[in-house]
Amino acid sequence: MDLSTVGFETDRLIVRACSTTDAQELSALMDPQISQWVAAWPYPLSIKKAKWIISSHLDRAIKGRTFAAVILEGITGRIVGWLKIELVDEDDRIFELGYWIGLEQQRKGYALEVSKGAISFTFVKLGAVQVIAGAQVGNDASLRLLAKLGMRKSHCEDVWAPARQRFERCEFWYANSA
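The structure corresponding to this sequence follows.
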């Protein structure tokens, strides 16, 4: 399935496949308080670098291996964050979920809402058997969110963070299809 043209909606959010035309808005949303917790999104984030990050996912989206998307407020249509669902194990149908929400849009329940929608989308539309998600060990807000989603702790491992050119300790959680 071509994932470069799909999307889903929640009560307050629209999630649609990204394009390089989203780079300017994503660049403007990036902040050091967000970047410290996300592996691939540096701060400062130039529009050129944002376009490169988006472009790096487009071929995989067309092949059905990655859903790279922007999260929009349904009422305003403004981009409030980023979502990526990536096929990490084709044989076992395991997908990894990652997201970030702009600083001004945080504490509105958007991360929980979009994550619930993304997990459902991954199981129903992409045929996942398992969804995994990880967060840095010190990212208490994200770890609480994974627990609130009903995911279960799996393991810890060091993950390469290209935004900071180092390995960082992350805790991984999982949810299985019903």
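The CA atoms of residues 112 and 145 lie 7 Å apart.
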